[in-house]
Amino acid sequence: QVQLVESGGGLVQAGGSLRLSCVVSGISLSTNSMAWYRQAPGAQREFVARITNWGATGYADSVKGRFTIARDNAKNKGYLQMNRLKSADAAVYYCHVRPSWGKGTLVTVST
C-alpha cells in the first residue's frame, strides 16, 4: 500500500522560507515521478512542481525561481524548498506519486 506523508508546513513571514518533506512508502521514487500540488481555500488544487525518476524537473510559472523540488532515492523522500514566500503561496501542499496523494501540510504566510 502506497503512503505519502508530508511535513514541514507552518507559519512563515512573507519573504521567508520553508522546506516541505514527503516520506514515501510502498513505492520507489527511483522508478516513479513525484509532484507537489497545492490548494488554497476556495480554489482548485494546482500543480506546483514535478521531478521525474531520472531527475528532470518542472515548475509552475508562479513558483519558478523561488521553489526547488528534490528527492532522495536512498531515503525514498521528496522535498520542496520554498524561498521568498508570498501570501499567494499560502495553501495546503500535497505530495503526489501517481495515483496516490498525501493528506497535505498547511503553509501559512503572514504579511
Helicity, as a percent range = under 10%
Stretches where pLDDT is under 50 for at least 5 consecutive residues are: none
Largest sheet: 7 strands, mixed
End-to-end Cα distance, whole Å, is: 40 Å
Q: Name the helix and strand elements from N-terminus to C-terminus, one letter apiece.
A: EEEEEEEEEEE
H/I helix tally: 0
Multimer state: single chain
Shape: globular
Structural class: mainly beta
Q: Tell me how many strands there are.
A: 11
Question: What number is the mean pLDDT?
Answer: 97
Q: Strand share of the residues?
A: over 45%
CA radius of gyration is: 13 Å
Blueprint of the fold:
Blueprint lengths: L2 E5 L2 E4 L4 E8 L8 E6 L6 E6 L5 E3 L7 E6 L4 E6 L8 E7 L2 E2 L3 E6 L1
Parallel strand pairs: 2-11
Antiparallel strand pairs: 1-3, 3-8, 4-5, 4-9, 5-6, 7-8, 9-10, 9-11
Distinctive features:
single chain; 111 residues; mainly beta; four-stranded antiparallel sheet; 11 strands; 0% helix; globular
Write structural notes for this entry.
The structure is a single chain. This protein is mostly beta strands. The chain contains no helices and 11 strands. The strands form 2 sheets. Strands 2, 4, 5, 6, 9, 10 and 11 form a 7-stranded mixed sheet that branches. The protein has a 4-stranded antiparallel sheet with strand order 1-3-8-7, with no helix packed on it. It is globular, with a radius of gyration of 13 Å. The termini are far apart. The mean pLDDT is 97.
